[in-house]
Amino acid sequence: MFESCRAHHKNQIINCMKHGYYNDRGLPESEHGYRCPSWDPMPDGKKNVVILGCSHTYGEGNADNEHWVHFLSQHNTKLLRYWNLGQPGASADKIVRILYGCEKIIDPRIVIVCWPAWSRRERLASYPESLTSADEKLKTEDSNTDKNNFLKNIFFVEKYAEKNNCKTFHCFAQDSYQEHIKNLKVLEDHTIKNCWPHWNMHTARDLHAEPSLAGDGTHYGVEHHRRFAELFLEKFSVKLK
Asked: Which of 51, 53, 56, 188 is a Cys-bridge partner for 114, taking CB atoms 3.0 to 4.6 Å apart?
């Protein structure tokens, strides 16, 4: 079934496409909301950067000024405007659905994806369901199907960028799959999980053996997020413009 919609945006008519749960002018509904300003109306004058990911990108358990997207969003603010579209529990499938849904709302010029565990899936039945690897519905999946589902979603992100003339950057929340996408702009070796504790010869020798945890006691805390943003900008700041 094909549905179309037409909406006024900055005095122009924008045609929209919708097939099932996929929509190029409508983000998936979220009980958590999206951790960014309202895009209606959309401000003028800057390039839009969307950051996609799971709860680690959303900043679960952290305050608004404690997650890595907040720290990233302090970079080059004269030219760039940042939109955190991370969602708790999101799979690579849902990340792509969110990206395509923001096309005619936010019109990103830069797309940053912090990929979650590739064992996750999104099941689109009578309602969209985010599944983790422990779910009974995924008992037939294995490392090969995980890898190829991940690569499918990499393709969709890169194809979106090609069609819309966007820059893309890739990084990882917990497990790194960098060896599968070496030809792209990837933050290698470091993830939100492993980036802290770290040794820094310029700071006091205060050694930490345990991860920093967020207020919920489960997700990673501000030290991980601040360090991860620093590492991302060390590698890609000159390209974020």
From this structure: 53
Where are the domains positioned within the chain? 26-239
Residue 188 C-beta-side C-alpha neighbours within 13 Å: 8
What's the confidence (pLDDT) of residue 89?
96
Please give the average per-residue pLDDT across 222-231, as a whole number: 98
In this structure, what token pair is assigned to residue 194? 């492993």
Quote the Cα angle for 128-118-57, to 5°.
75
Count CA atoms within 13 Å of residue 184 on its CB side: 23
Residue 11 is predicted with a pLDDT of: 43
At the topology level, CATH places domain 26-239 in Rossmann fold (3.40.50)
The angle subtended at Cα 175 by Cα 203 and Cα 22, nearest 5°, is: 120
Whole-number pLDDT of residue 150: 98
Q: Chain-wide mean pLDDT for the chain?
A: 92
